[in-house]
Amino acid sequence: MFKNIKMGKLYIAYATDENYIQHVTVSIKSLIKVAKDIAQYEVYLLANNLAESTIAELRNFSDKNHLSLYIIRVDNLKEILPENINWGKLSITTYLRLFLAEFLPPVIDKVLYLDCDTVIIQDLTYLKEYSMEDFLVCGVEDTMPPEIKEQIGLKKSDSYINAGVLLVNLKKWRDTKVSKHFMSFIDHFNGEVPFGDQGVINGVLREHGILPLVYNVHSPIYAIYKYNDLLRFFSLDSYYSPDEVERAKKSPIILHYTALFVDRPWFRFCLHPQKKYYRNLLKVPPFAKDRLQKNQYGWRRKFKMLVFSYLQPIYFVLKYSKDRIMR
Description:
Strand content: 15-25%
Structural class: alpha/beta
Strand order of the largest sheet: 3-2-1-4-7-6-8
Order of helices and strands: EHEHEHHEEEHEHHHEEHHHEHHH
Helix content: 25-40%
Shape: globular
Number of strands: 10
């Protein structure tokens, strides 16, 4: 199946099911659009119970665009994971990233894992030569409040990465049998790890490398306008510098459409300032749709989003005043 693999390419992996096929296809479309040389990429799709018709359409699409796309079927994910795991609001498919070392070809030593809700804005081949040093994984620092870190055994000052964009040292994952450590960590929490598999990755791989923010510009970076407000809102003592945050906003390499504050661009009501990238690609076959989805939340959520976006200075004055009174 993998006999034509060529070393020296950038390998990208996604995990998806039928619910996310529209989004992962948009992300792949974005790669094709911005790649300086599509022959420099190979994409691996870990497919949780995808329909044969979906797989056929994906293969036809990749062939037309000269993209090397490998679809790896995973139809037994529930049998692989601990029985006591609590999915909560997460899709079970998101846990597939914990098994990249098992499912991807053994000749691949390094892979870029991307969530389905990412859009690639600039060519990524620079990452082929990115030095991971001795780290098992590199990612972008997340805006995670200290109390969440403490829930998985980290200190407030410890680094915590967003798992939506991960540069993974697959060779070291295999050598250290890291998936067994992931499963033990899940068992330790009786299947209820805060923030699911992202919590697992941060709890197990505590020593990790930090990628520049431009490689995973998640929604809070756009939603909170002032740097100091960003730090205060998430109770962060440190983060990327103000210049790095501004550079990421203006010239992102990978956009990550997380839901917080602005909602996602496939919903009718979305305040994300960069939603056009997703929506323009959505219109391109396959799985093209002209009609956006109805928002999952009602008018109260929309009202709060509008207030946060357009009356943000007042919001933070009131918030900080309330915090001082409570203290």
